Amino acid sequence: MNDLTSLMRPKSVAVIGASNTPGKIGYAVVRNMISSGFKGSIYPINPKETEIAGLKAYPTVVDIGEPVDVAVMCVPAKASLSVAEDCGKAGVKHIIVITAGFKEVGKEGRELEQQLVDIAKKYGMRIVGPNVLGIIDTHAPFNATFAREMALKGNIAFISQSGALCIAILDWSLKNGLGFSQFVSMGNKADLNEADFIEVAGKDPETKVICLYLEDVVEGERFINAAREAIKRVPVIALKSGVSSSGAKAASSHTGALAGSDTAYKTAFKHAGVLRASTMTQLFELANAFTTQPIPKGKRVAVVTNAGGLGIVAIDAIELGGLEVARFSEDTIALLREKMPSMANIYNPIDVIGDAHYDRYEVALDAALSDPNVDSVAVLLSPTAVLEVDKVAEAIVEANKKHPDKPVVAAFTGGFTVEAGVEYLKKHGVPIFSFPEEAVSTLIGLTQFASLNESISDGQEWVFDDVNKQRVKEIFESVRKDGRDLLLSPEAAEVAECYKIPAAPSRLATSEAEAVKYAAEMGFPVVMKICSPDIMHKTDIGGVKVGLSSDDEVKEAFNSIMLNSKKAAPEAKIYGVEVQKMMPQGDEVIIGMIKDATFGPMVAFGSGGVLVNLLQDASFRLASGLTRREIEEMITETKAYTILKGFRGAEPDDIPAIVEAIGRVGQLCRDFSEISELDINPVFAYPDGLSALDIKIKLS
Ligand code: ACO
């Protein structure tokens, strides 16, 4: 396949469907190419024209007779296949298909799109789109779009699934002075998709941050790998719209019911190290901050303000957002005590108070940024009659320059009075907002990136080599041979045993004598349950007996369970009666797995037991690449963790054992892609070890 550098930085571009008629897309693309300052060759293609925009025009791309890196297709969809064939014959490397009328219009369009992809594959060409605005690289420079204007030069790579959104953002960015390195409209993603463009932007030396607007992800694993690779150098921020239905589809299991419609993307983004923006505003505010400010080394924020109220709002936002209010060093406090008036608050937030002139900001900012206990600073301002707002802005820029290793954000809360200061800060790359929460939210994003990056670079997939894969394979084969997709409880318990997931001993008894034998082997008391995939509510029909402590009780239970079940469900296929060791009560948690069509198996952990669906307390991670650290982290994200740690003086549970059990479930699901759902609910957690009670495994 071609190197995509020649897509973003081509030496020659053909515009197919180039036109001399103003208002046509082929007219705009040629003019944009010329006005972008593109240094390579531009070949307009039009069967009727000899010259377009002062350039020699060719009837077809084949007639050029020179190598063509990129062809921009601006002809109607019905002409697209013959144009693509021509491109292939002419040795074109990439086609940007602006043309609409493909997958997005239905079945016929979908077929046409597939034919287009087939032609491209035949010739080893790569396709952008179809149905796109085009591509811009401001540093090349290169503008193969029909946008009104070229993007400003900058360091944000914007990759968008929506072309219309590209146009809107481009226009907005011109007004707001936001610059881009690359601007990519992906359209229908028939060939190249987000993974490819993340790879490209991740390697682009002019790109400092990658912004994504996504409606879906095409290749889950490639997307994750591309993002994980890119974030070694630049942050990746995504705004994901649309709701995935995978959660709802899988709701037949407890784990499925715990997963919301957005769980897969949330989990995958976390695993990939992709920051999630919840609004367009946040996407670009954060992107802007990443291009101008350093990444904070930790969570400790200092606030400098001349208004107590604004300071409190900022402190609340810091604490709610998972950051920390910095505790200043003694040196800082001594310095502030000396330089500030006695009414000023010299602890965090530093309140330079209402009568402050800009010089108090200078002192406070320098003190905060010099403190080793501070990782980032938020400066707040209320425009009092005595404050020189412009000079505060200058002081902020100076302080930011003097301490280039710590990010500074600002919120000037006001109207006309603060305008000039705001503009000055914008111009000098200090993220500036109207309100404290917005400023803090940007610091949260910057800090989250640091911790995401750290968690990704820390650890390998947790692999266990003491598992019995062969036996699990045999069990699955025999389940399939029996025409089932759901494992019987004793089978599921054996699978767990093979992967050393501690399960309550369980055997399938087909006779009274067997039941007695198994109960004696595992030791009293035991529980007995009817074993039939056709009987759902076992307790209701008298198919479950608990607390059985003697041979006689076991015999009696075997017979009555069989009788009750046959009576209640005469058609049901009955395999016998499960004898399970009755385990002492522990804290109830759930470990499970559901599969997402795009991102594969996701393991879950949370509060378990009969109230599982009511509690809705679960955390998810992708099974693929699952590290020990990720599992430890996912446990701490649940309410169950509070109980496991030892709630109200109770002895703490064996958390390392739970961590390991989740790791082993992850490996089981990676090893056997045919497992479509897995639920272990409840798992009894004890101060020493755990016991998996009810294990459900469903095969696809
Ligand atoms: N080779 C070269 N030139 C050709 C060929 C060919 N095989 N066939 C036609 N042409 C010429 C035409 O003669 C015409 O040139 P002219 O102006 O000199 O006559 C030019 O190519 C364009 O062809 P038209 O038939 O005039 O097509 P038109 O410009 O009306 O439409 C277009 C083409 C724009 C590609 C249209 O089919 C289309 O898809 N429009 C939607 C585009 C779109 O919205 N894309 C998504 C963008 S993202 C977003 O949402 C904003």
Protein described:
The chain has 700 residues and is of the alpha/beta class. 40% of the residues lie in helices and 21% in strands. It is built from 25 helices and 30 strands. Strand 19 (408-412), helix 16 and strand 20 (432-433) form a beta-alpha-beta unit. Helix 12 runs parallel beside helix 17 (436-457), helix 14 packs parallel to helix 15 (389-402) and helix 23 (628-636) crosses helix 25. The two termini are 34 Å apart. Mean pLDDT is 94; it is low at 245-251. Residues 16-17, 19-21, 24-26, 45-49, 74-77, 79, 83, 98-101, 131-133, 163-164, 167, 185 line the site of acetyl coenzyme *A. Acetyl coenzyme *A is lined by residues 16-17, 19-21, 24-26, 45-49, 74-77, 79, 83, 98-101, 131-133, 163-164, 167, 185.
